[in-house]
Amino acid sequence: MQYMLLIYTDDTTEPAPGTAEFGTYMQRYMEFTQEVKDKGLFVAGDALEKVNTATTVRVRKNEVDTTDGPFAETKEVLGGYYLLDCKDLDQAIEYAAKIPAAELGSIEIRPVMVFD
Amino acid sequence: MVIVDPAQAVIAQTVKHEWGRLYASLVKYLNDFDLAEEVLQEALVAALEHWPGEGVPASPRAWLLQTARRKAIDRIRRRRNFAAKAAELEVLLELERQEGEMTTDDTFPDERLKLVFTCCHPALGEQARVALTLRTLGGLTTTEIARAFLLPETTLAQRLVRAKRKIKAANIPYKVPDPDQWQERLSSVLAVIYLIFNEGYTATQGGSLTREELCGEAIRLGQLLTRLLQGEPEAAGLLALMLLHDSRREARVDGHGGYLTLEQQDRDRWDRGRIRAGITYLDTALSLRRPGPYQIQAAISAVHARAAAFADTDWHEITLLYDKLYELQPSPVIKLNAAVAHSFHRGAAAGLRALEQLQTELHRYQPYHAARADMLKRVGATEAAIEAYKSAIQLSSNQVERDYLERQLRKAAGRGGQS
């Protein structure tokens, strides 16, 4: 069963690029990705550009409305995701807790919907 | 209704005692909480039809399980006409394979530990965990649970539906958790049981102080868990704690339904049987030498249970236990209790000094004001005591508790009131 692990972080609490902490942080991400690949759980996973690059699109009355920025102003924003194939929620929780950002922000686990 | 028919009496008893075990087995076979409930319900209806005429079978539990499984086969077969899913076919094949096997009481394994861990999964909301545990393990009906929690039945039914839907959609597993998740998951199970007990014991809302059926249900669940988890001292610790608290249930209320403090209680009314059972479980737990918050709280309760009169209480022991508890669980509420014990050990003035540092964190917490009022009264600061009682009354949501506080307020103000 596939689970989407959505990584929410607050930019200001994550290590800044160029610092030694950032190097360690990235190293841990690479190790995590390797681990889920080795275990055969990895389906997909990416980091996203910062939220100030986001564009929001709505269609209302057949008109496309494009605006800058995210839909809502919250401190923690979506920064990346993993799509994993886990046997159950407990396994998904186990791996969500291993994502480095779990210690700074939060991971939202969403089961991927299966259409019968 | 008076039950006259022996078959009906057996059915009623079986429902009460075997529901959780039957339900747990059915969920294991069927991997579906709703289907398990439906077929178990149908099996009970069948029992009501057949047992009065044909006599009660030798093993009511086995009969009910067999019947429920047959009902499940029928249902899945009917469903297959619409959509044959691989998972359902697998369940069906397994059920049909088992149909030939005779089930007796001894041959079907107890699956309730899996059920309790699924129902108390932290991915479910706290209230959903409580409702689901009472429904599936306790066998309480939706109506009974709603009544116990003073909720509209539709609200409670909705809560159960949502919880079961999440179990299915998110694939919350039906299993005993792995070692690395064990501690978090066990504490969630214990917390749910203690929450049920406390809801019954302190009845946070409404007009009566306790709702016995919830206390009884929580103790039953605690006994079950202690049996299933013999190496876990906190399970026995929680059971000991509940039994010791429950031993004082009758004595906490006076003839008019008013609340009595430990000091005012008639200790002859304490249930000695419960105290003995509680202390036995506590000793078993402590002998495993892995202390935890429930064991320490039970130990505190046991100190009270051992004191022949309030004046004989070993307050020194109690303050030490609170210190130990605070080490494991640093919370201002524990500090508050420690301050109360301190006030009996070293005097009310010392207790008040200990309370000072808690003001910011606990100024919205009723027991803080009630404890402070009592200590102020004991040092003779009547005006301040009255103000503190007023704050406590404002924050109280239970009528019995409020009545008690109002009586104390009147006494402090010297305007009479009953003793």
Automatic annotation (TrEMBL), chain A:
Specify the domain of life of the species encoding this protein: Bacteria
Q: Which InterPro entries match?
A: Dimeric_a/b-barrel (IPR011008), YCII (IPR005545)
Q: Where is the YCII-related domain?
A: 1-115
Q: What is this protein called?
A: YciI family protein
The family note in this entry says: Belongs to the YciI family.
Q: Which organism is it from?
A: Exilibacterium tricleocarpae
A Pfam family it matches: YCII
